[in-house]
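Appendix B, record 7
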Amino acid sequence: MAANQTIFVKLLVFLVYGFLWCSCQPAEAAIKKYQFDIQVANVSRLCHAKPMVTVNGRFPGPTIYAREGDRIQINVTNHAQYNMSIHWHGLKQYRNGWADGPAYITQCPIKTGNSYVYDFNVTGQRGTLWWHAHILWLRATVYGAIVILPSQGTPFPFPQPDREEVIVLGEWWNADVEQVENQGNALGIPPNMSDAHTINGKPGPLFPCSEKYTFAMEVEKGKTYLLRIVNAALNDELFFTIANHTLTVVEIDAVYTKPFSTEAILIAPGQTTNVLVRANQVPGRYFMAARPFMDAPVPVDNKTATAIFQYKGIPETVLPKLPNLPAPNDTEFALSYDKKLRSLNSQKYPANVPLKVDRNLFYTIGLGINACPTCINGTRFSASLNNISFVMPKTALLQAHYFNIKGVYTTDFPDKPPTPFNYTGAPLTANLRTTQGTRLSKIAFNSTVELVIQDTNLLTVESHPFHLHGYNFFVVGTGIGNFDPKKDPAKYNLIDPPERNTVGVPTGGWTAIRFRADNPGVWFFHCHLELHTGWGLKTAFVVEDGPGSDHNVLPPPKDLPQC
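Structure tokens (predicted):
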């Protein structure tokens, strides 16, 4: 009997200690698997039906859900007539550029009838990001949201919402988008603007034939909602608001911010913003609305997309209340809004801003006109960084880097423009000896980089959202006019600057960013206005391997597409 009691006690102790040990261990990361079928589907909007490229026949495509620490595997099978690649916008892909997605930068595209598995870990990131096609103009219809929840048991650093909703802003063309792009290129002029903006793929009731193409979100009075907002538009910065309701910004580009309240947000193509909104108004129906911001003499699709913020129990016969959006050219609102964006910089979520800079870069944005004998006006628009209009290679840059393939690119991209001038002075029409080439900038591993991006008045000033793949960066400074290297750095915010992956360079101004080059590989850097990217407003960084194998680019997967 005593022996049995001893065995029982030992077993009980073993079970108790085993339970305590298990409860102290972090939850095992899950593997989230998705199947993306790139396929042509018939879609109708604005009284026009057309076949267009989609993922799984959906527009927008499916939302990817994961938790911080998860592994994601997405098998992309291309059934469409175009080559395809998918970019997971904002995911850092540490050492794993093979999963980043931009065609001819980190991979050759997935050809018709072929598949490729994007396999990556979500490490040290949580929040709202998004995915989109990264070849031609196919991201006009091939896009969707990524929702990364905090690791199990980790709360938000803001009041827990009662519910969440994904809001993806986009554009709609009645015509085939690739034909629109090709026509513009052939004529040497900007392609036709979109026919509507959309909210979750729907333009809303201000457009014809849109009664059933209106997104509605049902809410209950007194409850708080987290809106995960993505700007997936090709070419337009957008204001977003909800009539009679206040938005509280709590996150940008999957990085927590110091919360602040605003009547509207400004969100550039490629950016994401999370806001809290409390349903605290008289129960009714209220318009959500999105409309472009443009403070330069550049034509845009200025139509307003709408959706409905609808209180429970209110009949659909009640007319929604209209919102007050900022004026389309409200520069003051845009600059004021950006100044309010600051990193949370808490003990758990610090802002590790590089205080010492190893490498200073100064890039000028230039728009130009080149000769084109076959174009309608005998000329074609071009765009450049530091007077270099980027030429896309035929072999993926990361493959050329990893396998040491010669002749694909050079690493002589200049740290500053060859010819200094009054960048934002009187409009200039000269190209300033713009050249073409596949020229990259080589960056030492773990070095700290400061990059000042300067808008210019070559043809016209304009706001440009720039996206850096493989990294977040800190937006330490911004201003209007020419950057002054002697005076402006003294005004930098090095305490709690916003941390982003995509930043808007203001019209006729400059933006300074800092980052630590701790992610080896080849990383694309480009304007996220698809129009300008196609004209050559892009380049890439080659970040060298670090010491030891754990700081080197990972070997490529066996199913990597070939050119």
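Remarks on this record: Helices lie at 2-24, 177-187, 331-339, 397-402, 530-535. The first strand starts at residue 31 and ends at 45.
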